[in-house]
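Severity: low
Component: inverse-folding endpoint
Summary: output formatting inconsistent between runs
Steps to reproduce: submit the following structure tokens with default settings.
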């Protein structure tokens, strides 16, 4: 069996906001547009998750909502500013074969670099900007079998590429 991971960093958030905390910061205009464009790109390319596991921050929730993928989501506090090891632990608990993880840098970028066997030949992969999305496949029967450097990168996109299209 194959398990597929869609790994997305939240879209661009607003810094000029009256949000009471970092956790409560919303997306800015460009972030809202990017999240919608990412959702369309995922659907057009057949990368639709069966479930979404997301940080509970306002900007990840808004990214999920604007992507409009139709997949149920759970919001896991451990993913808020999680490091790569925590993301691995959370993903190992996933139950569906095509799962999206929606979280924050620097952890999500580190996780992307550590989970794939080979990095893509893309200049933005190593800094994993807002909205960066990887699609990675694994030859495993269950997420509990997931290990580092075991994924085959199928696709990678950043929102700026969708705006230019």
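Observed output (run 2 of 3):
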């Amino acid at each position: 069996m194959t398990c597929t991971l869609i790994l997305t960093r939240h879209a661009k958030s607003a810094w000029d906001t009256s949000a009471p905390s970092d956790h409560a910061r919303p997306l800015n205009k460009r972030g809202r547009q990017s999240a919608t464009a990412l959702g369309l790109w995922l659907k057009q390319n057949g990368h639709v998750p069966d479930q979404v596991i997301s940080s509970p921050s306002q900007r990840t929730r808004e990214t999920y909502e604007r992507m409009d993928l139709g997949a149920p989501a759970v919001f896991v506090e451990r993913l808020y500013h999680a490091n790569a090891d925590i993301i691995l632990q959370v993903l190992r608990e996933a139950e569906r074969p095509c799962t999206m993880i929606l979280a924050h840098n620097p952890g999500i970028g580190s996780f992307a670099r550590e989970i794939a066997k080979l990095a893509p030949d893309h200049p933005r992969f190593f800094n994993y900007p807002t909205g960066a999305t990887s699609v990675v496949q694994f030859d495993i029967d269950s997420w509990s079998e997931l290990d580092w450097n075991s994924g085959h990168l199928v696709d990678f996109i950043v929102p700026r590429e969708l705006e230019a299209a």
